[in-house]
Amino acid sequence: MNNKVKFILTVAVSLLLLTTFVMGNSLVAHDYLHGRGDAATLAVRWAVVIAIPLAMLSGYLIARHRSFVWGNVHGSACDGKAPPQSSESRKSRDELRMEFKQKRKQHKADRREAIKEYIDIVMVPFLDDDKSLDLLFENIRHWHLSDDEQFMPVPLKPNPRLTSFDIRHFVWNIGERLGWSGVKRAEFAKYCFPVAMKDLEVETIRRTLKQSPENQFSIKIDEPDSKDDYRFHYPNDKIPDSSQPLNESSDY
């Protein structure tokens, strides 16, 4: 019951009580003055005049009390429920799916650019031509996407400054951003850099991917800031801003 209805009801009951009292009082007084009733009759009439307004007032108060209690019970039952959203402001499922696909697409594009940038910055001292840098990027991309167990990366021939520890660290850093297993990283290192890794078995490479003997490597292990973060860190460099990473590693 809202305030407006309560106000109107209160005014109506008040007027009704006042009218009943005035009319009853007038009738009793008129009869008494004209000698048409004794004292007992007068008392009964006064009792009726008083009882009727009291009964009406009691009924009104009881109705208001029940309305108040019901409103509290109903309100408390609904307190834990979230207010329904209007159909105009709520996004449809198709819109939500579209937004998710766009975010995933942007995430993949940003990750791809981050890996390409890392290859250029870190491997330029060891791969002497642009063709080799591009081929390394394509090897990583196909190795990540291919479900064909027969696929083999195109072998690369870096200069002798690139040690087997540099290769292991480089592959670990890339694989960490793409969700590769230890075996997948070790096999890529073995097949992509066969000359530098010729004396190492895949299992040995897997167990020593993060091994870091002093003064025998140039590329360091680069731990991501979080589990699904694809960004890399560079010496004396600020980390470039990027969108928040999504929890996915199934595509590149």
Fold and architecture overview:
The protein has helices at 3-33, 39-78, 93-123, 130-145, 164-178, 182-192, 202-207. The protein is mainly α and 252 residues long. The longest helix has 40 residues, at 39-78. The chain is rod-shaped and about 135 Å long. The two termini are 61 Å apart.
Secondary structure tally: strands: 0
Structural class from helices and strands? mainly alpha
Beta-strand fraction estimate:
under 5%
Radius of gyration computed on alpha carbons = 43 Å
- Average pLDDT: 79
The dominant shape is: rod-shaped
Distance between the termini: 61 Å
Assign a percent range to the helix content: 55-70%
Q: Give the oligomeric state of the chains in this entry, treating copies of one chain as homo and distinct chains as hetero.
A: single chain
Task: Count up the helices.
Answer: 7
Order of helices and strands: HHHHHHH
Low-confidence stretches: 238-250
Sheet of most strands: none
Indicate the topology.
Elements: H1 3-33, H2 39-78, H3 93-123, H4 130-145, H5 164-178, H6 182-192, H7 202-207
Helix pairs in contact: 1-2, 5-6
